[in-house]
Amino acid sequence: MSKERKLTFNTIDLSEDEMYKLLTGSVIPRPIAWVSSISKDGIINLAPFSFFTVASRNPPTLLISIGPGVNERMGSIKDTLTNIRELKEYIINVVPESLGEAMYRSSANVEPGKNEFELAEVTVQNGKLLNVPAVLEAPISIELKLDQIIPVGVDHLVLGKVECVQIDEAIYAGNYKIAIDKLKPLASLAGDFAGLTPSFAYKLKGT
After folding, report:
1. Are 28 and 190 spatial neighbours (Cβ–Cβ below 8 Å)?
2. What class of enzyme is it (predicted)?
């Protein structure tokens, strides 16, 4: 691919939506954090976020980025962020291909207090260490306590320390490893989703 054929987009010339499209189409694939939380009034919530990664191995810390509400809830604070701020604990459920449609249903913009577990047609499972519901059908559920919330522009980086991990025996490969081919994780693209092609490894010359 020659340099002459490359297009250049300067941030200063783009709208927020235009830059968002470029970034979410470039930084792919992204794992999906299906976050379950609970409000101070006991209302449970379930919502997916694709700005998600490991932030630290020691202490084990995960990062999700939560943006403002969209469409009819444009600019509002999402229930997930409010719940995490107030209760300081939450669960990240890993989404396999088989739960893709359920996850997508839970992403709908609904009124506060709506039970997204029912919307997604998944089962509530009590957390092992935390008073937060997990998705029973999810092959991996990671329980976290809030470490800190960092505002970045219009978004908020949420850092949570891992308290425990629940893993379905069917996708556990032993020796603390996950059988990725059995997990079949779902990836977020630029508005679409994808599974994984057969995995492979690179080998450096001389090794």
Report:
1. yes
2. oxidoreductase
What are the chain's domains? 14-194 (2.30.110.10)
Confidence (pLDDT) at 200: 80
Give me the amino acid identity at 131: N
71 dihedral zone (left: phi>0; alpha: psi -120 to 50; beta): left
Taken as a whole, the chain contains a residue count of: 207
Rounded to an integer, the average pLDDT of 31-45 is: 95
Please enumerate, as own/partner, the contacts of 80-86 that have beta carbons within 8 Å and a separation of 24 or more: 80/35, 80/37, 80/45, 80/47, 80/49, 81/149, 81/156, 81/158, 82/39, 83/37, 83/38, 83/39, 83/40, 83/45, 84/37, 84/146, 84/149, 84/158, 84/160, 85/146, 85/149, 86/39, 86/40
pLDDT at 77: 87
Rounded to whole angstroms, what are the CA distances from 53 to 32, 60, 129, 173?
A: 9, 11, 22, 22
Q: Which helix (H) or strand (E) holds 20?
A: helix 16-26
* Residue 142, phi then psi, degrees to nearest 5: -115, 120
CA distance 91 to 84: 10
Residue 53, φ and ψ in degrees, nearest 5:
-165, 175
